Amino acid sequence: MANRLAESLSPYLRQHADNPVDWWEWGPEAFAEARRRDVPVFLSIGYAACHWCHVMAHESFSDPEVARVLNAGFVPVKVDREERPDVDAIYMDVTIALTGQGGWPMSVWLTPDGHAFHAGTYFPPAPHPNLPSFTQVLDAVTEAWQQRRQQVLDGAAAITDELAARSAPPEPGTVTAADVDQAVGLLVAQADDRHGGFGTAPKFPPSTVIDALLRRAAQADGPVADEAWRVASHVLGAMARGGIHDQLGGGFARYSVDAGWVVPHFEKMLYDNALLLGGYARGAVEAARRGDHDLAALCERVVTDTVGWLQREMTTPEGGLAASLDADSPDATGHPQEGAFYVWTPAQLRDVLGDDDGDRAAALLGVTEAGTFEGGASTLRLLAEPDDAAWFAGVRERLLAARAQRPRPARDDKVVAAWNGWAVVSLVEAAVLLDRPAWLEPARRAAHLLRTLHVRDGRVARVSLSGRLSPAPGTADDHGAVAHAFLALAAVDGDPSLLADALALLRTLDTAFVADAGGLHDTADDGEQLVRRPRDVAENATPNGSSAALHAYRWAYRLTGDHHWRDRADAVARTLGALVTRAPRAAGWGLADAVAEVGARRPVEVAIVGPDGDDRGALVRTAWREAPPGSVVAVGDGDGTDHGVPLLAHRTTTRGAPNAYVCHDQVCDLPVTTLELLRQRLG
Fold first, then answer.
1. Prediction pTM value
2. 649 — phi, psi (to 5°)?
3. Which site from 84, 90, 390, 426 is most exposed, i.e. has the minimal number of CB atoms within 10 Å?
4. 185 with 153, same domain?
5. Is 578 helix (H, G, I), strand (E, B) or coil?
6. Full domain range(s) for residue 146
7. Residues 496/80, Cβ–Cβ less than 8 Å
8. Residue 333 falls inside a structural domain
9. Statement to judge: residues 625 and 671 lie in one domain
10. Measured in whole angstroms, how far is the alpha carbon of residue 178 from the centre of its chain?
11. CA angle 367-274-561, nearest 5°?
12. What secondary structure letter does DSSP report for 516?
């Protein structure tokens, strides 16, 4: 018989609907039940694509005896971290503080008032040398709750107070050009010069840091720019050629379990690919500018494949982009196995390609008899550039078709607002930078879904599934990312209604999310009152609410000329300043903003008007590719009327030919009509 989770909107929660555990969704009813029964809450947090969440569900939550113990002594609550990032953030802080590490599944024990007193991540069904079994932990927590109640309550209150004190943001600080180069120097010193990226293992794509390094590389020539490019280009190339990148179908896995990007943790998340898509598009342009045409071609191929993957495998019937693909899929025996969909043996390659092409592909893609993964299988890597591009394209096509016959990983179909917003921005960038206007269509479809379903009265709902909204409230990053998406499309399409919707979301950030010193809380002031109101200024795999809003505020100022948005951007940037200078790996988008705002080449506003066609398109591409980092380009038809996009207002053509107006803080030069003159103005 199904439990309460059967009616949940979250696919992750519904994965647990057949457990014998008497699960509750997060909400006041669960905590009221804990108070009524005078028992703790057991909080389990995970997400649909999480491999170890599946393992713990199979080993423990599906076990009737474990469920009996859990149901008898606790109120079990299941949370999808992607739906409730605010809940996840609060209790992840607890888990890291108590254990020294975090991860999912996250297991936290709470008082009926929501204060945590014990935490961990995965617990096995039987004890390991350094890890108790799940039932041992349950028994120990029950004993403490029954025999040492006051000690537990005092400890829980102390944990909450201590973490609230620790979570206070650093004092605001202004970042100078010297600070930027010092921060870039820290990144250069911390980079893995052998494998690319940062750290050892596990190794995650440094998406926002790549953006900062690419901006510094494009800011002005010189030693710091060259070093920034060296680090950025190394990680772009290493990931593109590594096993973390799906060499057949496109897209990136969430992280590599090794330092060399060889073996991924195979789950694919929309947020990684949304952010990396824009990074690779900008990387392709910078590589071409610097004469590295092989890397430029590789980056462009990555972008093309990633867009193809988004359209082929991740687009929902409503036009949004799904949250993730599982790491696991059925193997040849029908059992769920991590990576089963993606790995190959030499024999499997020969079966599809024939002996000669199979052996040639194995050598090129790093598929060995010993294997790089489990069971003698190998992940696919690109060990060298193929000497015959047409042959390699044919090999990829045949292998992709053969792989499509394998059982597929499950997809979490929910649409997460922030992740879709970042995907829209990157699709717009890629479409213009690489001259692929067809890529604007998936961006418009996703934005339409966000606009018509997720946005209500200036608020963003975080999650939808099959056209139905979750009650989960939108966070600051949802509002900032969706506003940014609307602004990017408003600029490229000259659409004043999208601009108006974006500004309404930014006004919501100004009122419902504003914090001390001009920063932002992660949650709205009228939202659920948790034990602590989260406010994270550090970035992890994605931008946080402050950095997401910061970039949207900049776009709003450059499209409208309204100094309020510039002032808001500056205020948020100051709250990130200390982190930018001291820990730039945790402040990639904050550093990217600082690179633009204090660099030698300051951002400009470019208005390009005229009839749609090759001449206008060439001006638009040139402006996007060659304007200083942080610039904004808006496009209109140039009929001289006020379109509602102030940057385009009263801009006209010259004898019907497209004009480009380059403006510095809204003060515009005379228009130009040729690419040569536009390059001069941008330089």
1. 0.96
2. -60, 130
3. 390
4. no
5. helix
6. 4-166
7. no
8. no
9. yes
10. 29
11. 150
12. G
